[in-house]
Amino acid sequence: MQILKKLIVAIALMGFLGQMTNVYAMDLEEYDEGDDQLYEEQKRLSHKKLLYASMAGDAQVVAEAISEGANVNLHTKDGETPLQWAATRGYASVVSILLDGKARVDTADQWGATPLCMAVYRGHLPIVQILLDNGNADPNRGKGIGGIVTSPLSCAADKGNREIVKMLLVAGAQPSGQESEQAKMVISAARAELCNHAIVENMLHSMLHGMSF
Hints:
The chain contains 9 helices and no strands.
């Protein structure tokens, strides 16, 4: 009789444990699904955070969003990326963080403008330097700045920004042949300055190496 009672208890206990295992498995499934949903929601919020922080120039929030998994190459319906927004508004620290986060430097919006185009258009010399030096931006890529079909070099020359013109020339920018007369004059002057600078550097180099100490 005692053996029968023990057997009944053992069977009941096994059934209870089996039910608990099923309940636990169901809870785990629900938790995993909910966790995935939470993660996706967090990513969606991180994407928004990255875009708006890039627009506002908040480097700390940009870094946080990237660490949370935000896509540095997300874009608006017009094709504008966080890097383009930061470059357009002149936020050097944000541009550097985005480039470190593997942002694509030559992505163009629906009008054909790249981050470099917009930095040139707005006259942000430090941003142009960062994009060319750290991002290896293509100085001949991009057109359609401000609704006008033009290249970064033509844009800088039209605006009379000789320093940016020199930066672009050093990086390998080539005139399109469709520049205005004013732009051609600025480009020629910038080339002359670069040439004179190179001549002076060579002379100094020769003089220093010819000296005996």
